[in-house]
């Protein structure tokens, strides 16, 4: 069942007809209630679905097809506009239900705070897992202008829940000095600027581990992904982002869930960012959902 049974919009390409027969569930988290600069990521999931129709279902990189993933697009969680806490509670409850049903959750944001309740749900089902985080920003603040529920805080919350030693951030090129210092002293694994070589070094140390993957589209350089709320120059290429997805897919790790966040269609005049996100999601579907 979709969230809205009367839904008449687009679904991600090659979505399975029923929830029951699916291995993976694609779902949207249309929330941008706490952003500090440019809002609009709540419209990201819908636009990613629309542009996905221009993709091929087959990946030559992974020699696989979306149909093999048996993915069902459940639509967007109907989050209450402006109510951050209730929205986060609803996301956690929904992901918990997917895990209870034995499904692979693949989320689309929305701002990056939405990853926090997702990881909380996973923590109820798994005793030991790590988070691989690809982003331009540290997201390690305790609060933003006095507000602990902020898109600047999700990875700090996650680190406090599962342990900083179980969190790995790649591509980081922006954050407060205090965030970088906390990462150094806490045992948090933070890699600045690059994503491919640091991940290549880390993956062998995670052999046999369960892994959750979260990608903020602003890890890409603005020249490749202008449609995001908080651009940061000096980012990586789409080729590099695809490479790390493929590295994770082929590694000796058990990917248990993933998300991609922060696509803002209002700033994406050519759909460049949404198209990049859709293709990365396709590779995640084929590579991660077993």
Q: Could you walk me through the main structural features you see in this protein, from its secondary elements to its overall organization?
A:
- The chain has 290 residues and is an alpha/beta fold.
- It is globular.
- The protein is built from 9 helices and 10 strands.
- It has a single domain, classed as 3-Layer(aba) Sandwich (Arginase, Chain A).
- Strands 4-1-5-10-9-6-7-8 form an 8-stranded parallel beta sheet, sandwiched between helices. A two-stranded antiparallel ribbon has the order 2-3.
Topology record:
Elements: E1 24-29, H1 44-52, E2 58-59, E3 64-65, H2 66-69, E4 71-76, H3 84-100, E5 104-109, H4 115-125, E6 130-134, H5 154-162, E7 167-172, H6 177-186, E8 189-192, H7 196-202, E9 210-216, H8 238-250, E10 254-261, H9 272-288
Parallel strand pairs: 1-4, 1-5, 5-10, 6-7, 6-9, 7-8, 9-10
Antiparallel strand pairs: 2-3
Helix pairs in contact: 1-9, 3-4, 4-5, 8-9
GO molecular function: agmatinase activity; metal ion binding
Pfam families: Arginase (PF00491)
Pathway: Amine and polyamine biosynthesis; putrescine biosynthesis via agmatine pathway; putrescine from agmatine: step 1/1
């Amino acid at each position: 069942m979709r969230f809205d049974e009367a839904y008449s919009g687009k679904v991600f390409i090659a979505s399975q007809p029923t929830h029951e027969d699916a291995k993976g569930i694609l779902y949207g988290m249309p929330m941008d209630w706490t952003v500090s600069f440019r809002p609009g990521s709540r419209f990201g999931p819908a636009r990613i679905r629309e542009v996905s129709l221009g993709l091929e279902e087959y990946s030559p990189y992974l020699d696989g097809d979306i149909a093999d993933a048996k993915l069902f697009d459940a639509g967007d969680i109907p989050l209450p506009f402006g109510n951050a806490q209730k929205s986060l509670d609803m996301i956690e409850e929904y992901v918990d239900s997917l895990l209870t049903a034995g499904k692979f959750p693949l989320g689309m944001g929305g701002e990056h705070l939405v990853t926090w309740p997702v990881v909380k749900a996973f923590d109820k089902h798994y005793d030991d897992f790590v988070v691989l985080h690809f982003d331009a920003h540290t997201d390690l603040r305790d609060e933003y202008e006095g507000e602990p529920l902020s898109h600047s805080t999700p990875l700090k919350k996650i680190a406090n829940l599962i342990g900083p030693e179980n969190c790995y951030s790649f591509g980081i090129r922006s954050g407060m000095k205090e965030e970088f210092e906390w990462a150094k002293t806490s045992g948090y694994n933070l890699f600045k600027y690059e994503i491919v070589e640091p991940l290549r070094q880390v993956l062998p140390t995670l052999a046999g581990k369960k892994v959750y993957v979260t990608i903020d589209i602003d890890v890409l350089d603005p020249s490749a992904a202008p449609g995001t709320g908080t651009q940061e120059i000096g980012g990586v290429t789409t080729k590099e982002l695809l490479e790390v997805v493929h590295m994770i897919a082929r590694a000796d790790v058990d990917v248990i869930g993933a998300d991609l966040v922060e696509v803002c269609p209002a700033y994406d005049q050519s759909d460049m960012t949404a198209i990049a996100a859709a293709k990365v999601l396709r590779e995640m579907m084929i590579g991660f959902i077993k």
